[in-house]
Amino acid sequence: MCCAAVCVVNLHGADQGQFISDTKLVLDGVEIGQSGALMLSCVLHAASRTFANLMTSSNQSFRTANKQELAVMLREAHDYTLSLFACFVQSGADDLLGFFEQCPVNPPVWELGHLAWFAELLVLRQPSASGQNGQRLPALLQQADAWFDDTQLSENARVILDLPKATQLITYKNEVLDRVLDRLSRDDAHDDDAAVLRPFRQALAYEDSIGEMWVNLLQTLGLRAPLWIERATATPWSREEIRFAGGSFTMGVQEDEARRGFAFHHERGAHQVKVASFHMDANLVSNAQFAEFVADNGYQHAQHWSANGIAWLMQQERSAPLHWEKSGTWWRTERFGRMINLSPNEPVRHVNLFEVQAYCHWAQRRLPSEQEWEYAVMAGHPLFHWGDCWEWTCSIFEPYPEFVADDHVVGVALKSTLEVAFGQCQSVRGASFVTPQRARDRRFRHFLMPDQCDYLVGFRTCAL
Fold it and tell me: Whole-structure pTM over 0.70, yes or no?
């Protein structure tokens, strides 16, 4: 593993007596030790907690939460991050180069440091944080900008960095959190001051998104996840079809609402939309329903597949969804490194756009549009259920009218991501069972590449 032998840190106010050592740190100019075993023990303790309350304890949205509520949410997100990171550490997948060779995404150990760096940048290092004008404050961790500024580093570069050890990055992240919470508790952070609270909300939203990404990564790599995630099961819901009368509604987040709380930039640009009447499934397509398509040789009949779908299928040699394995007359599936019996009533997951389009053609149904999906959620029908898996729509991910990518609001990295995603990705709506309640919003716009099936994504259908 590529690690620095000595990590030079400037953490003012840190408790210098709480560590004993196997690696060296310099805190406030004083060399102290840090026990990797002690820090890893802290991580594993976080992993042993029950995080179900993260998903179900409160319906309060982070977009409108006051500073006391945000403090609790930030702590929950931090603990949850450490619980997921422990899963990578226990499997050895925190290694940089070896990890990237197996799965070309940001290595978890880099992402852990980046989370701390990003929160520090947003909340603690802006010129306004110290009353300075126009000059960003230095990072608590020396070389943090060189290691974690994703606007300056390619993904390939992130695996050859001489990063600190994971235990040292945990120390850095803990210290950043303590200082963020301290700043949040000060009198200048008024409960209703959206401008003051916006960087805290942005840091929280990013950490929540990484948490969800890490769950998908654990599944992709066949690694164990926290038990509450492994044991999560979907409640059987109605298989009925709902008729929606249609009509006009405002799609997107109004500017005055965004100013009073928080909105992602690609949700802004509220505009009127008119939707014709339509019939939509009350719930997502289940494993049992999708298995009928598979049993009818749906993957072998080209007439059900688009040209792009056929091209993808020929490269994959797939005859069932990702992770499915035939067992007698039914199926087993791999969940976080273990083979289990496939639950027939759960929503089918890990299917890409080509697969769900083929199913729809076979079933003589269609995917809902992004507008129809949002209208259906807004209608509040008692049988309509969402939130078990993200949901494909038939809509290409495009900017709303009058979208302008403001670097100050969006951030350079997100601006670049959106520029690539617009027109190339497909709109995905909803949430999954690992999306925190605080992050769930019917207006949130997610996006995936059409061939992507490594996400907790499923679908529902509409009548033709």
Answer: yes
Contact assessment for residue 462 and residue 366, using Cβ atoms and an 8 Å cutoff: yes
Closest CA to 394 of 362, 375, 371: 371
Handedness of CA 220, 428, 231, 288 (dihedral sign): negative
The two beta strands, 241-244 and 30-34, are unpaired
Distance CA 441, CA 206 (A): 15
| Beta strands at 462-463 and 446-448: parallel, antiparallel or unpaired | unpaired
CA dihedral 440, 443, 444, 445 (to 10 degrees): 150
Return the structure tokens found at 316: 């994959």
- In three-state secondary structure terms, 7 is strand
Q: Give the DSSP letter of residue 85.
A: H
Whether the Cβ atoms of residue 266 and residue 252 lie closer than 8 Å to each other: no
| Token pair for 38 | 């002690």
Name the token pair of 181: 């919470």
Alpha-carbon torsion, ordered 266, 270, 272, 274, to 10 deg = 30
Beta-strand ranges (E) seen in 9-116 are 23-27, 30-34
- Locate 150 and state its tokens: 């994703």
**Using one digit for the tens of pLDDT, what is the confidence trace for 236-273?**
777 899 999 999 999 999 888 888 889 998 898 899 99
**Considering just the CA atoms, what is the radius of gyration of the chain in Å?**
23
Note whether 210 and 203 are within 8 A (CB).
no
Secondary structure E strands in 221-352: 241-244, 247-251, 271-275, 278-281, 324-327, 330-335, 338-341
Q: Answer for the pair 247, 253: CB distance below 8 angstroms, yes or no.
A: no
Beta carbons within 10 angstroms of residue 429's beta carbon? 24
Tokens standing for residue 459: 């679908």
Mind listing the pLDDT tens digit for each residue in 78-111?
999 999 999 998 887 766 556 666 666 788 888 9
